[in-house]
Prior knowledge:
The protein folds into two domains: 29-306, Tachylectin-2, Chain A, CATH 2.115.10; 325-407, Macroglobulin (MG2) domain (Immunoglobulin-like, Sandwich). The chain has no helices and 32 strands. The protein has strands spanning 18-19, 29-36, 47-53, 60-61, 68-69, 74-78, 81-86, 89-94, 99-101, 108-110, 119-126, 132-138, 154-163, 171-174, 180-184, 192-198, 203-209, 212-218, 226-227, 234-236, 240-247, 252-261, 264-272, 282-286, 298-306, 325-326, 337-344, 348-355, 361-371, 374-381, 388-396, 399-407. Strands 10, 11, 12, 13, 14 and 15 form a six-stranded mixed beta sheet that branches. The chain has a five-stranded antiparallel beta sheet with strand order 1-9-8-7-6, with no helix packed on it.
Amino acid sequence: MKSTYIKIIFAIFFVISITTKAQPFTKKYIMAYHTCNANCNGFSDHITHLVESDDGENWSLVPNFEPYQTSVPDVIIRGEKLYIFSPRGVKRYDRLTDTWDSDQTFVEIFDKNNQPVQYVDPSAIIDDQGRIVLFFLNSTGSTGDPAGCPTLPCTKYFDSAVEIDGSDGTMFRLQDGHRAEIQLEQSPASASDPDIFYDGSQYILYISQGANTLAYHGDSLHGSYVPISSINGVLTHEGGVPCGYYDPDTQQYWTYVHGNDAGSTVIKRAVHSDFSMQPNNFTTVINYSLIGDPMTTTSESPSICVNTFLTTSNDDVDLKPKEFYLKQNYPNPFNPSTNIEFSLIEASNVTLDVSNVLGETVEIILDDKRMSAGKHIVKFNGNNLSSGIYFYRLVSGNGTIVRKMILSK
């Protein structure tokens, strides 16, 4: 379908692609962590691995998972999907189709004015509405290492953001206020790498401060978190970049950190019933030998989740999409790019075009393109358009839907 009035203008789009290697997850717990070998020059060379365990202590590599380059991973499962978040984006596994995203997808956080929020070290949790929530170090306006300060004293802010409907873990809305604030007063000083989890009665927030782990708690997910008073907020000096899990069966906390063991950086675990811990609570559970590397390879930045795939079955799941829709673009208003999501009940030739208020077609994003059934996300760039109201239209064998969007430059 082509307009005889208006020239087709350059448009940028992508459809998320996936690979097809079988991916079994057979054990109760899944952990993501990164390694850094002797040639590692920092976070840009970190490699993320996935391991699994039935007891939280003895870990083995997840079969067929291909390690990839990213740093400070955080893993979580929701429904039939597994998500690995990092400062670089998110990589997802879909159990129904047994496929991984071919690459990471950029994750955006917006404030209430639709302005982007800079962040590092995201930690994910699922809220009571089934949405992914990210806790993170807000690095907006930071220069240099976001965990430290160019000049002292300074304050580090740890915030939270809620997943935007339809974004599938790629776009989030910043929540009001700060979850925790840490004042840095003397060098060397840092605060980073939050980890959020729930212990059945309260939310626990771990924060890394160098080789130390701080522990805060809060009654509501998006409320204020304060140091646990019985320990003055300091959980342990045995390591940083922590993650935590509460085992409801034994009513015990599992705390993982990375720290030193015989000259090598390893991942350690402590099992404890309260937050009063001793150094001998920790034992090494993951080191260089797990992946067959030399002792100079560091194992760092653990994150853990329960493998809920084991508690659900997809034998009776109808894989055929049940809905034809075109969602409201996001962000909206936008400048210059926005995301458009739609779903097809059946495979079809698809045209997605943009028109102005006069009904003239000004851009064609998809031109009679054959597309599979299911959900698709397209990124549209309006660099070549002026500010104003536009209408985007989806035409397929499933039907036709039109929605309004606003470009504000």
